[in-house]
Amino acid sequence: MRTLPLVVMGAGALAACSREKPNILIIQCDQLATRAIGAYGQIQGHTDVIDSLARNGVIFDNAYTSCGLSQPSRTALLTGLYPHQSGVRSNSGKWLNHDVDESLPTLGQIFSDAGYNAVHFGKRHDCGALRGFTHKEPVQTKYQDPLVPLNQDSFKDVGTCADAVGFLSDPGEGPFICMVDFQNPHNICSYVGAAAGPHDVAESADLPPLPDNFEVEDWSALPIPVQYLCCNHRRLEQASHWSPENYRQYIAAYMRYVEIVCAQIRQVLNALESTPAGRNTIIVLLADHGDAMASHRMVTKMVDFHEESVKVPLIICGPGIPGRGEHLGQLVQTSTDFIPTLCGLAGIQAPSSLKGISQAPSVLGRRQAENHSYVVSEWHSEYDRIVSPGRMIRSVEGFKYTHYLEGNGEELYDLTNDPGEMHNLARNPRYADVLERHRAMLDEYIAASGDDYRSLQVKVDPKYRMHSPGYPSHIDGYNLWNFCNPSAAPSSENP
Ligand code: ZN
């Protein structure tokens, strides 16, 4: 396969245009897991275009989203805030999530004020946080794929790709910040609907293997909201009785959606590379959240704080960035660090109200004087019908601590010795000190960020907690969506 043309300039070229502000191209994918990306070292051979970016830049190995759900994650990224601060905690509409306050700085506004042409293509889901960007809504184009069913996610990406290619082929004068928001591999969600329930797998020989952390050894050791994801969420219900081969087929389908979006990313980068502006463009690739990819018998993402759901890819390359496939291990909080980092790379003063850490020094090969001792992820609800708030602390010590208000559930994982998060140590007396330290970190975060977590209300009808713990014990038809969401009845495009 063709190697991506270099858009990284040599030292001489950099010096020649050091007075120019760099352009910035942000490519965000919805639900792209690090595990699917070759540069992250697990599954190889599906993401050549992303791997090429990584070889020409830096790869953040420990970047975490502040929420494993689209709208809160995106709004947080664009405002530099945590979900509880932006006011956008779920995927619900404006009747529950208010539009982002107009007094808050946003990524688009900051760069527009600095003289950038700020343009956005593709998925919004932003509650007004795209303020400052000129947005173009993608036109859907229906088509078929020989391997996987497609829905509006894939159809919209055709328009998003065409819009981005059109702009980047002739970006005009002056610096630009261009954000391209692809839906895929999010199309995997409706794949689950199309493959609901246990079903025969025609050919299993070529299916990818299950992850090492596929099985859950002790459901009762998990917090209640995680035990009953099958009752919260129709995708988990639809997969609750799948066979191992069905999960393997899920991984194969997921990787196909990844390949589809990678082909579009390649078109976008080819367009960028075709113009002189491409030589002065910093490229950022990231995702709003991950995908379980069959870890812990999960599909998609929901409620949980597993690595597969909340750790996200973050790759940066471009002029002045000396890294050549360098992996950076520091903790990154994508929502709070994104704006300060981009401002640092562009030579723009970030608003003092933003509390994130600029990762620009390490991206530019300089000493990173300030780092996080822990990063955080929040959960509230998907559509506010079940509300089961939780918080995650991922510390520089290499532990992950989670807390859910419902049942006062806790998890503690030693990510160094148990990267698959198979053994919850929260009740292990040998880790009592570790547990206390991480509880204190959560308290510190709550106090420092003005988090109202402890006063939030759990809203769960007991009928969603009826069966024995675990998705394999799920009772068919006993799902939130069946009781509460008749308007969201499955359609042919979103089964
Ligand atoms: Zn269930």
Please tell me about this protein's structure:
With 495 residues, this protein is of the alpha/beta class. The chain has one domain: 3-Layer(aba) Sandwich (Alkaline Phosphatase, subunit A). It contains 16 helices and twelve strands. The chain has helices at residues 11-16, 48-55, 70-79, 83-86, 107-113, 152-169, 188-194, 224-227, 229-232, 234-238, 244-273, 307-310, 334-346, 360-363, 432-449, 480-484; strands spanning 23-29, 57-64, 117-122, 134-136, 176-182, 281-287, 314-317, 326-333, 374-379, 390-395, 399-404, 409-414. The strands form two sheets. It has an eight-stranded mixed sheet, with helices on both faces. Strands 9-10-11-12 form a four-stranded antiparallel sheet, covered by helices on one side. A hairpin with a 3-residue loop joins strand 10 and strand 11 (399-404). The protein is globular, with a radius of gyration of 22 Å. The chain starts with 10 loop residues before the first helix and ends in an 11-residue tail after the last helix.
